[in-house]
Amino acid sequence: MAPGQQKIQSQQKNAKKQAGQKKKQGHDQKAAAKAALIYTCTVCRTQMPDPKTFKQHFESKHPKTPLPPELADVQA
């Protein structure tokens, strides 16, 4: 086999291996975590994953500010 042909085959094998490793990595954890943060504090713009955490945050960080109506019925 000529050295040029061997180089081409090696490059193709490496490209296939790289593609396989990329598939194994799976999803991006940062993007998934960011998507889970769906509640945003109206005062400080901090994001939280659930209404219970949001209410606890609001009561501890902004005690003088009236509670938003979406948190009125949430049990902390």
What is the topology?
Elements: H1 3-25, H2 29-36, E1 39-40, E2 47-48, H3 51-61
Antiparallel strand pairs: 1-2
Gross morphology: rod-shaped
- Major β-sheet annotation: 2 strands, antiparallel
State the secondary-structure class.
mainly alpha
Q: Supply the number of helical segments.
A: 3
Number of strands: 2
What does this structure look like?
It is a single chain. The protein is mainly α. 55% of the residues lie in helices and 5% in strands. The protein has 3 helices and 2 strands. The chain has a domain at 33-63. The longest helix is centred in the N-terminal third of the chain and has 23 residues, at 3-25. The mean pLDDT is 84.
Provide tags for this entry.
76 residues; mainly alpha; two-stranded antiparallel ribbon; rod-shaped; zinc; cytoplasm
Brief sketch in words of this structure:
GO terms for molecular function: zinc ion binding. By secondary structure, the chain is mainly alpha-helical. It has helices at 3-25, 29-36, 51-61; strands at 39-40, 47-48.
